Amino acid sequence: MNTYKRHRFPPDIISYAVWLYYRFNLSHRDIEDLLAERGITVSYEAIRLWCIKFGGKYARRLKRNHRGYGDAFYIDEVFVKIQGQRHYLWRAVDQDGEVVDVYLQSKRDGAAAKRFFKRLLRSSGAEPRKIVTDKLRSYPVAHREVIPEAIHVTDQYANNRVEQSHEATRVRERGIRRFKSMRQAQRFVTAHAAVWNLFNLGRHLVKAQHCRELRVSAFNEWSRAFA
């Protein structure tokens, strides 16, 4: 089945708009102006619908083709407020800063932690050698029942890596003026994490030429995701 059937614009334009939205801190109206500057007249509402429909599709394809994660997971949760209610955004990254999974839940008790750990095993395809968390009491429960063989580290500052990873999502949350529902939030953070993994090239860690090569490789992977 043609993914773009009955869409007036070609895949290149649709995928470019979706990429702009999840890659940069831009609103749908910002992207409307950027496309208009290139002679492409499309409403911000159409762009919003593209992001809803295709963001998840691209994310699943990117994740399916992911090269794999490391063997150490850094796990943390932060609260987000949706329609006045507190929810918790659980996140896990590996030792290279790659987002393994991100999941929104209404609680952060032992059951929620176990649910997230089981998702991690499905997302990564393998049990980690080590997990690093803060001292939230839900984590030992999930560790003991889901991945008891993994080393569990709770040292102070040890999971700074994942705490810093939350910042990119926080910036986008402010940019879109908070999430409107759990469904919308989960849809957004899933697609955002997949694009972040692909284009977070660690420019400060590599030489310019190597960074350019990594960028070309990332764009090639993106092209395969929307083809």
E-strand count = 5
**Helix and strand element order:** HHHEEEHEHEHHH
Integer tally of domains: 2
CATH topology annotation of the largest domain? Nucleotidyltransferase, domain 5
Annotated CATH architecture of the largest domain: 2-Layer Sandwich
Please, what is the CATH homologous superfamily of the largest domain?
A: Ribonuclease H-like superfamily/Ribonuclease H
Biggest sheet: strand arrangement: 3-2-1-4-5
Secondary structure elements and their pairing?
Layout: H1 11-23, H2 28-37, H3 44-64, E1 72-82, E2 85-94, E3 99-105, H4 110-124, E4 130-132, H5 138-146, E5 151-153, H6 160-175, H7 182-199, H8 208-226
Parallel strand pairs: 1-4, 4-5
Antiparallel strand pairs: 1-2, 2-3
Task: Explain what this protein looks like in three dimensions.
- The chain contains eight helices and five strands.
- By secondary structure, it is of the alpha/beta class.
- It folds into two domains: 11-64; 72-190, Nucleotidyltransferase, domain 5.
- A five-stranded mixed sheet has the order 3-2-1-4-5, with helices on both faces.
- α1 (11-23) packs across α3 (44-64) and α3 (44-64) crosses α8.
- It is globular.
- The model has no long low-confidence stretch (mean pLDDT 93).
